[in-house]
Amino acid sequence: MSKQDMSIGHRLRLARKARGLTQEQLGRLVNLGRSAVSHHELGLNDIDIDTLRRYARALGRPLSYFLGEE
User: Fold this and answer.
1) 15 — phi, psi (to 5°)?
2) The model's pTM
3) CA-based, 20 to 30 A from 54: which of 3, 10, 16, 45?
4) What is the predicted pLDDT for the residue at 63?
């Protein structure tokens, strides 16, 4: 796991909680299982750009938020 994966995962968790969603609910919105969301939040699995875009849309955040560019 890289620092970038962990940073993206941390921002993903913050954004999910800010929207009041569970991992399962977010998973349904982006067509992934709860365990995949959990692994992404923990930085255990790489997130490809298409999946990150789906997360960004579902959570109402710009892609740059997850990449630390804000």
Assistant:
1) -65, -40
2) 0.91
3) 3
4) 95
For residue 45, give the 3-state DSSP assignment.
coil
- Which residues 6+ apart lie within 8 Å of 69 measured at CB? none
Residue 14's region, left for phi above 0, alpha for psi from -120 to 50, else beta, is: alpha
pLDDT band of 1, cuts 50, 70, 90: low
Q: How many CB atoms lie within 10 A of CB 55?
A: 25
SS3 at position 68? coil
CB of 66 closer than 8 Å to CB of 55:
yes
SS3 category, 62: coil
**Tokens representing 29?**
């919105």
Q: How far apart are CA 60 and CA 19, in angstroms?
A: 9
Q: What is the mean pLDDT of residues 29-44?
A: 96
